[in-house]
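2024-03-11 09:14:02 DEBUG pipeline.ingest accepted 1 chain
2024-03-11 09:14:02 DEBUG pipeline.ingest length=289
2024-03-11 09:14:03 DEBUG pipeline.predict start
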Amino acid sequence: MSGIILVLVLTSAALHPLREFFIKGDATPEGVTLAVNIWFFILAGGQVFATGQDPWAALEVWPMMLISGCGLWFYYWCVVATLRSGDLSIYYPITRSSPVFVVFVGYFFLGHSYSLVLLSGIALVIIGAFMLQYRPGTSLLSEPSNLALAFLAMCGHGVITIADAEAMKQVTPEVFMFAMYIMVIPGMAIVLSVGRPAGRSVYQHLFVGWTATPIRFAVAGITAYVSYYLILMAFQLGANVAAVSAVRQVSIPFSVLMGCMIYKEARMTARLTWSILLALGVAVIVLAK
């Protein structure tokens, strides 16, 4: 991996946890989540029209777009619900372990076979995820609801990954995202509005941050988009997909450091240790495929 590609991937990994960081720390986490989706639509649309591409070419892969869109609705709902009461440093590493789901689907439903090395990676992920949420002196599953939600978010992200990878064989990322988010944004607003506190209007729940904390909303959306775009740049420069995916897992320790240092979440050393083990397991899975 060349120096410039390594810089691109590491920068992407450093930016990636910022989305969950802003969701965790905002008074209206649902609003931040919707804002990220709106910014993806705006920025992808800007690229499409600036480069003169056909914005409706993505309709050629509409089944994958529908699957990915539904996966996004489910993923973000689970992430918001998890981070509402759960620690960023515990649950971000679990939600980002989607290669485990991809391997599971490949083995049981797509007829793929995997090596002992890959199965060892899965074991590392399971151990790391368990120990991240385990608190000495408490029950083995101290927060079963949050753990279940984080696990479901991981599965949702795995669905998105599989659908997006298939769609990218026929369309460019910006065209795909622009068309998909036309569908995703209204559905996301509905999903995130369900269960809002009594007496809180939809505007207060989802849109007040655009005027109350506009910079926060903009930074969350733009950094998330830039993180993804940097990965695309790395691929354009000829980066190996498996190597890039492995290096990106350094975002997991970054999330732990942010959660413990900024939100004052406890047990930083232990959580950092287990998050590194989990990240190593994901890297082994990706490299062994």
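2024-03-11 09:14:41 DEBUG pipeline.report The longest helix spans residues 62-85.
2024-03-11 09:14:41 DEBUG pipeline.predict end
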